[in-house]
């Protein structure tokens, strides 16, 4: 114990500003890139390699020695070798005793091995202090110096002082170390760089499915039907008119799907009379990707706004309006203002604007830096109160847009209702059920259940 | 002392990867939720309770023991009990000696007790190392696993190693610990989850007041007046036309109110000849909520943009324009281009666009993650230089919009001027005073005063 | 050693909640402001000064003593003196032995001295533990309490416990300490507050140059040419029409310039057959400011959107459209729908909307808080895949906008082609070269080179 701690004291940069030598095992691409960068930051670097033949690829200022010799020169040894070749380290166990070993390895698949590479390394060389770090940084980024992406380096390890030493190197490279605790976190850190938006898969698949369905639905009603029955070619509707139908429909449905699982959860809890049973798996997964669903909905709402605002510039719209005006002028008549129409048109636009505005606010509060500055009570207020208000406004926007067209038979072509009518089903269900759940006779027991009360408490004796 | 430190060494996860047992006092909702989550993260958990009867609510893998027995099994004890019941812990003082006690309690009101709960706990059990943590996390969030909101857990305490141990548990739960220093910070941490946007109260009340005033003002001028004198029903103006008058007015006034306190402060400092007297309280408070005022102003400006862009789609506007064209066509005359009108219309639109664009830039730089990446000099540059430029552009936008209508008697109905004229008062005052303050004869002494110079330095002997 | 560590133990806030005295050397503006703030946070403060005459400027609760007396009262001494006057500290070396000295100084120029002020201080008083902190905070901000800007305080130093003590004070002041590692980081920390958007210089200069060029180009074609040949006064085009030509052109060119260096780097690597030679300096610098170039391009694209959406409200546009309709009405004819025009108009609008939408997505992911939550693989996916898709959409938008006007002689005035044609040169080059680079015969060797392979490996023997 004593020997160790004095060892560390000697290594700690207490006494002078000279940086301690760093040893790198392995002269592969990542080892060399890291070596380059560490030398640039002012550390002497020594490479440990099977062959001590110097290649032009290895930074000029670095020495290349045998593994044993190199290890003896430094207190920190970066293991830039693949996990399959870790075995030979057992033969160096004595030299590596008390040293800080930095595991930088990555796997090819998530959870490839039963234990993380860093834990495996710690088992092989029990006398060493293993620290996991640098695996989230790419060799390419180190070399090109273009660290635009995350500059965070996750670090974990069981020895605090070893971790501090590694974190100092991370900082010297211009990166930000992020302490993730003990070596148990290594598995998560190793899986991290292999992910590609895991939470977005379900929302994006769902969106693709719904978009395809509604595209063909609208194509049938708006392009094929007039072509068949009226021999009119409206194929250019594919560019703007049809997307501008799909976008608001998807925005509304996805927004409702953000709030549906909460409503379902409340019903399940009321029915079971307890909150201590797990929800079904699909509901759990659904609840976890609500934020992503909401953001996709916001994306569609934004596109809807752009498509709508562009309407008066469209060549087709200009032609239609000017034709209407000319035919009125030729018939020598002016229309009086239709007050109902003015009301309908203005109020559905106003509802849409307010709904979109609140929706954007919700989106901004879901930015990590904003939601981190908000406490739990404030977050609940924004996401729940403002969220439902947004849903109400957007549903009302769609209802008023429909106006008195709902029952008109002309809106049914081939027995297909207007697409926006389909989009109203889910939000209306959510709003009605939520409205019912607000009644005291249901709200009171629900609140009690959520505070831990049980209808049929089962004590095991 | 020696005993303690060896104790900690034994607890530190240096030797093996087995996680240390965590003890939880109290089997209430929060204690159970935290227990569940900690067990999921791989820690053995033991509950300390008055009654050792196991309930089905308690996680299956957890033992329930008496307080004394449970405390002996673990080095970390989470006190999930309300402050009123802390007294009984004094009887366990001997067993708790050297242990890490984690205070997770919250109060119902801000500053409810003279000292924070954690400090109270430290007084009751002086031999223990008290750490404040977890109080900002909700039991509901822990249970449902939907930690969408802030994943930050504030931690404070006087013992570094005790804090490290608690922070490791926090990280193992997938949360981010944030070290807030010594136990003195506990009061602030306990108040934090009770807040509901404290900085936003004044800006929102002010906004509500101004909105109400301008709503009735515009209603009188634009709806009631034509109804009374011309018997025209323009009630649908309530949906878009009137909001689109209120929004720009409020945006401009609130933006000016962001810069007014700075101007007032400069005048006060010049008058007093020193910066070492405190400003009046109302000015201090006003200065502290400038960011919020600016963001509310930006919200109104955004709504104004949406309301404006929607104009050509409005049914009323289309009717009015087509009627104008038809009557011109019926009279067989085309108008020549009015060059002055074209200039006025284009330049007020351009000024508005540029003003809004800079306003959005200001908004983006006020995002926490952006302003954290900007140094003080850059922040001053953006907020002061760009801010004033925004104010100048927006004021000019409103002035040019008015154009030559200012003196026309037809814009006064019931002696009420157009609402936008009222909105120009505050920004014009701010800009004129600021312009005067830029003159060297005032700017030089002001700069000196702000660097610490005093006109009448008063040395106390 | 022993004496030191016991010393620190006594200072650590382990035993009681009473805060330790803080000493401040220097009663200048910054020293006083910091003193005020530290007293407010509950620490006793003592000032060390040449003259012990108390001024009214010094906070009432603070004592003013000689340097030696003041230093003896505290374990932490904040050196609020300018570097030029550090010399006298050598005479206090004995008293300062083992104390924590906090260097808060700043320089007037970047890299003014060979070593940082903090390192200079450490050399002068080798027995003390020097910590760099507080230099990024302004006295004005401390005094006025309006810490809207970054609340981060960079801290660095070689002694961990000294750093912890300073960081506790930082936290007590309501600021966020950021550990930047050993004292070697002091130079960077001292340069930080002197910067004014260093990465933005090149993009902004480039933008100004291009803007000026295209402004006069468009002015010549759109205002001077019709004035000379048709005697029409279109000077009001300066407000909206010409900016709305410049904005999309600059957005497209700058976006292409974001992707050009990557393409050039690939060509250079293919030619050299290795990635281990440095790129030319200009290419390195160019690659480092790609993010800024992209954001400026996004700003221009946003302005273009606003200028475009405002078109139907413009007085000139309304006049032109109504004149067209009236002349048609007077001629008694209605036009049939031109299907090609409808297709062209709708598809260039749709391409523009989608391109802008993806562009905004790219902008959002470049927010620090978002890019920090994204791993390297995800970042590459977004910036590379989505980025090229954006470039393709925006280029297609411009191509379709041109439509069949490319070869029409009427679009050449004074032999000058339409400005948007010029804007297509760079993006088309980038896209064509990128398309060529995707072919397997080039893509395969390039991938190998980027993984470290060399065509002519040169082993030094």
TrEMBL record, chains A, B, C:
This is STEA4 Metalloreductase. Its cofactor is heme b; FAD. Residues 21-107 form the Pyrroline-5-carboxylate reductase catalytic N-terminal domain. Its main location: membrane. It is a multi-pass membrane protein. Belongs to the STEAP family. SUPFAM superfamilies: NAD(P)-binding Rossmann-fold domains. GO terms for molecular function: cupric reductase (NADH) activity; ferric-chelate reductase (NADPH) activity; metal ion binding. Residues 249-394 form the Ferric oxidoreductase domain.
């Amino acid at each position: 114990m004593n020997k160790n701690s004095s060892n560390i004291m000697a290594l700690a940069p207490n006494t002078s500003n000279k940086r301690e030598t760093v040893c790198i095992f392995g002269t592969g691409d990542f080892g060399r890139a890291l070596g380059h960068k560490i030398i640039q930051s002012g550390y002497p670097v020594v490479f440990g390699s099977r062959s001590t033949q110097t290649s032009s690829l290895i930074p000029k200022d670095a020495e290349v020695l045998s593994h044993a010799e190199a290890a003896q020169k430094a207190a920190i040894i970066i293991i830039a070798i693949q996990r399959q070749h870790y075995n030979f380290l057992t033969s160096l166990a004595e030299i590596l005793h008390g040293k800080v070993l930095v595991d930088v390895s990555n796997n090819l698949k998530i959870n490839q091995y039963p234990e993380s590479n860093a834990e495996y390394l710690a088992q092989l060389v029990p006398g060493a202090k293993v620290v996991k770090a640098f695996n989230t940084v790419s060799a390419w980024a180190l070399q090109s110096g273009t660290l635009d992406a995350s500059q965070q380096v996750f670090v974990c390890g069981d020895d605090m002082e070893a971790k501090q030493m590694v974190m100092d190197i991370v900082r010297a490279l211009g990166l930000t170390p992020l302490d993730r605790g003990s070596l148990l976190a290594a598995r998560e850190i190793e899986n991290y760089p292999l992910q590609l938006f895991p939470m977005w898969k379900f929302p994006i698949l769902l969106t693709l499915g719904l978009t395809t369905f509604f595209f063909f639905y609208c194509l049938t009603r708006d392009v094929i039907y007039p072509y068949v029955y009226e021999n009119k070619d409206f194929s250019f509707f594919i560019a703007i008119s049809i997307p501008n139908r799909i976008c608001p429909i998807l925005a509304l449905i996805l927004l409702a799907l953000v709030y549906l699982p909460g409503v379902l959860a409340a019903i399940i809890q009321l029915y079971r009379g307890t909150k201590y049973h797990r929800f079904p798996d699909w509901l759990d997964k659904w609840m976890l990707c609500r934020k992503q669903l909401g953001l996709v909905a916001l994306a569609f709402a934004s596109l809807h706004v752009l498509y709508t605002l562009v309407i008066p510039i469209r060549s087709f719209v200009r032609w239609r309006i000017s034709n209407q005006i000319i035919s009125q002028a030729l018939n020598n008549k002016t229309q009086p203002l239709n007050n109902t129409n003015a009301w309908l048109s203005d109020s559905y636009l106003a509802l849409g604007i307010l709904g979109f505005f609140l929706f954007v606010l919700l989106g901004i509060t879901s930015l990590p830096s904003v939601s981190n500055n908000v406490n739990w009570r404030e977050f609940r207020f924004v996401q729940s109160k403002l969220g439902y208000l947004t849903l109400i406004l957007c549903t009302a926007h769609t209802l008023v847009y429909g106006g008195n067209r709902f029952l008109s038979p002309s809106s049914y072509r081939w027995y297909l209702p207007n697409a926006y009518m389909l989009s109203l089903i889910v939000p209306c269900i959510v709003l009605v059920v939520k409205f019912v759940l607000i009644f005291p006779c249901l709200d009171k027991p629900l609140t009690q259940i959520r505070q831990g009360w049980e209808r049929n408490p089962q004590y095991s004796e």
